[in-house]
Amino acid sequence: MGVTSYFSPDLSEMNELEDEVEAYLREDQGYDRDELESVKAAHNKKFIGNPAEYRVEVVFADEPSQEYFYYTDESGDVYQSTATEGKHTETEL
Hints:
Radius of gyration: 14 Å
Helix content: 10-25%
Strand order of the largest sheet: 1-2-3-4
Number of helices: 1
Structural class: alpha+beta
Shape: globular
Order of helices and strands: HEEEE
Largest sheet: 4 strands, antiparallel
Number of strands: 4
Strand content: 25-35%
């Protein structure tokens, strides 16, 4: 019999977020898979119940020392954190 802690991350939600962000980057932003070094979801238990509870950390192949953070909002739209600046920083038009 397993016990799930309230603070345990939802691994299926994390996998789904990774897929959503990768699809966003490839389909909406035009990146090829080989341009993405890693796409990995992370859980922040300080924000349980908040859209910031989960984020996806992305590293691009041409900028391996820089992490970019992506979130989804309540409507499911993907957006990049504005706290990161580098080659792949998105700007709103």
